[in-house]
Amino acid sequence: MARFEKFANPTQFLRLQGFLQPWVTAITIILFVVGLYLSLFVAPADYQQKETVRIMFVHVPAAWAGLMVYTVMALSSAVAIIFRHPLADVAAKSAAPIGLAFTFLSLVTGALWGKPMWGTYWVWDARLTSMFVLFLLYLGYMAIWQAIEDPHRAARISSIVALVGFINVPIIKFSVDWWNTLHQPASVFKMNGPAISPSILIPLLVMGAAYSFLFLALHLLALKTEVNARKLRQMQLAEAGKV
Amino acid sequence: MKPVIAILKRDLLLAWRQGGGVGTAIGFFLTVMVLLPLGIGPDLGLLQKIAPGGLWIALLLSVLLSADRIYQIDYDDGSLEQMTLGPVPLELVAGAKAMAHWLSSGLPLAIAAPFLGFLLNLDTKLILPLLGAMVLGSIGLSLLASLGAAVTVGLRKGGLLVSLLVLPLYVPVLIFGISASAAGQAGPDISGSSFIILLAVTLVIVVVTPIASGAALRTFMR
């Protein structure tokens, strides 16, 4: 708990961020170089889908990342509400645009893959629909941050919105699955091991790690920006107070 | 419990006497019923097919649009502040006000909607299942709309924002509501189990939304 509170101090956090940032960025770049090489050159082309199967290596990790970021956002919001940890709502706020981008990427790459495979850019299939709803949840969360001027109030209200959304994500997922299923069922995370061959699985996992580190790198940067923006605001307010 | 009932009574009375509540919502509902065939075309067979979906969408929108009144007026004239100072926790206040909204808008709309289905050539066999599913589903719709109203209560322009926040949360209610009301088409098994899941979804909403609304109201009242 003591360590946890230590990072409530923005200066401490900025020091940690300054130390971590170059490392995380370097790991991200290495993972992407390796992952893209594996998935674009090493992994075999599918006998049915030909080269289009390679879109999957960009598409699937983006969808994972989109969900992961929402989880990070909801957990940070819970910490912000329960412990009033000052950096937690900054963390939730700065995660949202990144998660939105990942979700958008997964929708777009999915559409690009769907055109040659399913013959149409968009079908109202369960997974597409629930990712789309996730995209809307991100938009709503960011909109409420924008709409409330007072930052403390905005932080609390958006935390509530994020948590209610988080409770709803599995319910929405379940209901949409019930509604319509055309997408291939989950093939990586299964009880009796993955159902896909290692030649595809390994590049996929490397890309998954690359996306996770990309999120970490971007999130650290976004946190720093947000902390600095708040400092700036404080300074401007103090300056205005003098006059 | 007495103050909670007092709040409920007060809100119902206000909804009744102020006017412009249920009547306007049903008017809105009718307008959507007119616009839908104009947009889609007058083909009766097609309209019959989309009738349950059209009715549900119209119900979602009318419940949502009638919800901004739940807190706004009380926030503006200061009664919400009095309720914050009062003995009842804000979570219960939120629950009572959402309940009043359901009784004064959601329920009448849900009862009226299936009978307005004749405008869309609704299969008469579907009226009863649709009625049951809509009455149950509108509880969740009212509560979620009241949550949307609670998180935007202090804002000047909440309207579109509320829609963006609340409509994605309507997805489960819509899906199971539709599935439960399609009794004639999908067979009694499917509609029975969807009805039970709709009930479960509603119960989750009943538990979660008053707590969230209460927390949101407390933030705005600080």
Short description:
Chain A is mainly α and 243 residues long. In chain A, 80% of the residues lie in helices and 0% in strands. In chain B, 82% of the residues lie in helices and 0% in strands.
Question: What is the strand content of chain B?
Answer: under 5%
Mean pLDDT of chain A: 82
Please state the structural category of chain A. Answer: mainly alpha
Q: How would a textbook summarize the main sheet of chain A? A: none
| Tally of separate domains of chain A | 1
- Proportion of residues in extended strands of chain A: under 5%
Report the principal-axis shape of chain A: globular
Greatest chain-chain interface? Answer: A-B, 27 and 30 residues
Judged by helices, strands and strand pairing, the structural class of chain B is mainly alpha
SSE sequence of chain B, one letter per element? HHHHHHHHHHH
Largest sheet of chain B: none
Features:
heterodimer, A: 243 residues, mainly alpha, 7 helices, B: 222 residues, 82% helix
Task: Kindly describe this structure.
Chain A is built from 7 helices and no strands. In chain A, helix 2 runs antiparallel to helix 7 and helix 4 runs parallel beside helix 6 (151-179). With 243 residues, chain A is mainly alpha-helical. Chain A has one domain (22-42, 52-181, 201-235). Chain A is globular. Chain B is 82% helix and 0% strand. The two termini of chain B are 25 Å apart. Chain B contains 11 helices and no strands. Chain B has one domain (2-221). With 222 residues, chain B is mainly alpha-helical. The longest helix of chain B has 34 residues, at 188-221. The interface between A and B is medium-sized, with 27 and 30 residues.
